[in-house]
């Protein structure tokens, strides 16, 4: 095992080859209500990135050269790796196994801007809808794995809008990917909310549920569905001459979108 490196003052190399001290940590604050960080915070962050020494993160065979302080400030995972007594700290390189490159690019974008940028596809069909949803889920799963605390207010709003306007069902693959998040994670709740309509319909019409296999196989998925149904039932239940209705949890506040219980 390599010996623990001695603690020394961090330096960065300028274009002329001289060394200069790394700036003190900038006080970066997140602004959940806005799409991007405030200008003053963004300027501090950019200065921090400029002053910081570089490290390498390898993902799917590609090397990303990034500011060490940026990674370590936002991610406890990177902080332990690059500031601990591990070989990664000595070599200045971390390899992320089983990590999607697109998801990592979204994480880096979030660190800089405070939100991610998932492109709006030119063609809107079920396949492209699920490709977009997959990018969001991949980002949230990786952010959780890296210990990034958020807030992810803007990105949650964007994913919610995508699910609402899509009009398509979330694929089994995406549902399975979502269960890699901790129980009660808001993205898991949102994915469960998105399929409550078809779940209730399968019960009332005596049909098989599209995600029956996932209910049996995936740890916690049945719990997610049950909690989503309870939220919907407690939210707004109405009777009329046609039967009993609950509010569709994905479209809260839209009275035209209801789920018929009988």
TrEMBL record:
InterPro entries named in the record: BTB/POZ_dom, SKP1/BTB/POZ_sf
Compositionally biased spans, kind Basic residues: 1-10
Residue ranges occupied by any BTB domain in the UniProt entry: 53-120
Region (Disordered): 1-25
Leader peptide range in chain numbering: none
Domain of life: Eukaryota
Protein name as it appears in the record: BTB domain-containing protein
Organism: Hymenoscyphus fraxineus
């Amino acid at each position: 095992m390599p010996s623990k490196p001695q603690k020394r003052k961090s330096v960065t190399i300028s274009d002329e080859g001289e060394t200069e001290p790394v700036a003190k940590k900038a006080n970066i604050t997140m602004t959940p209500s806005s799409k991007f960080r405030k200008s003053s915070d963004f300027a501090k962050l950019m200065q921090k990135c400029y002053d910081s020494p570089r490290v390498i993160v390898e993902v799917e065979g590609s090397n990303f050269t990034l500011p060490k302080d940026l990674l370590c400030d936002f991610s406890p995972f990177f902080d332990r790796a690059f500031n601990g007594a591990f070989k990664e700290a000595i070599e200045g390189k971390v390899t992320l196994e089983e990590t999607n490159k697109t998801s990592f690019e979204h994480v880096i974008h979030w660190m800089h801007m405070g939100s991610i940028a998932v492109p709006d596809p030119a063609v809107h069909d079920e396949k492209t809808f699920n490709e977009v949803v997959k990018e969001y889920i991949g980002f949230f799963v990786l952010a959780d794995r890296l210990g990034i605390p958020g807030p992810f207010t803007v990105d949650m709003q964007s994913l919610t809008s995508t699910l609402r306007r899509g009009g398509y069902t979330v694929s089994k693959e995406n549902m399975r990917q979502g269960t890699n998040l901790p129980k009660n994670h808001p993205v898991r709740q949102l994915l469960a909310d998105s399929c409550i309509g078809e779940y209730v319909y399968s019960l009332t019409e005596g049909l098989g549920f599209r995600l029956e296999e996932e209910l049996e196989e995936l740890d916690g998925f049945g719990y997610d569905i049950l909690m989503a149904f309870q939220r919907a039932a407690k939210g707004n239940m109405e009777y009329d001459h046609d039967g009993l209705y609950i509010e569709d949890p994905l479209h809260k506040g839209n009275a035209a979108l209801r789920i018929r219980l009988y």
